[in-house]
Amino acid sequence: MENRIVRILLAEDDENLGVLLKEYLQAKDYEVDLYKDGEKAYKGFQNKYYDICVLDVMMPLKDGFTLARDIRLSDSTMPILFLTAKSMKEDVIEGFSLGADDYMTKPFSIEELLMRLEAILRRTRKDSVTTAQSIFQVGKYTFDAMKQTLQLGDDVRKLTTKESELLKYLTVNKNAILDRNFALKTIWVDDSYFNARSMDVYITKLRKYLKEDPAIEIINVRGKGFKLIF
Fold this sequence. Notes:
Number of strands: 12
CATH class of the largest domain: Alpha Beta
Structural class: alpha/beta
Low-confidence stretches: none
Radius of gyration: 19 Å
Strand order of the largest sheet: 2-1-3-4-5
Largest sheet: 5 strands, parallel
Oligomer: single chain
CATH superfamily of the largest domain: Response regulator
């Protein structure tokens, strides 16, 4: 994390849970503003800068999904993590369709919440540095994420959108683990079994595309994700 204090907007109508989360995060050196309904949370968002928003889905006056839509109209890149008692697949899909960075179903571990918040902040800050960058050197290859091409010498391969997105996340996180669930939820929208198998196929394709440079490896990190090494 950076040296400056990270500011969190926490919208949670369960007073006991809200106070518990606020006190825990404050003890971890975060600045937290707790709002008990969506309307107050949105007014708070309009009047103060935040680094990330943690939104309960079921809230009075304005629910978390509606609040997220309003926040996205003001700031399309604001990181959002949803908290909810719901576990229906449709709710998860709706949350990610609104651009959520993560989604936790109650009850959850407060320590896991902290880990997910920190992971989102690391990713979004890294993304903010690399968003403007579209051309990457991947070993001997030149990868153009904007044009979706992978070039080695005079050989230019056109990538599909998913191939390009997956390779970009691997490249941005080179020599570090790309979290499997993050990749699934970001590129495939949800982490269903079918999509997980689909991503494995894309990983195999990328390995094949990059095989001409023996210094490049995409390795599986069991239970965590993938790592691009070069």
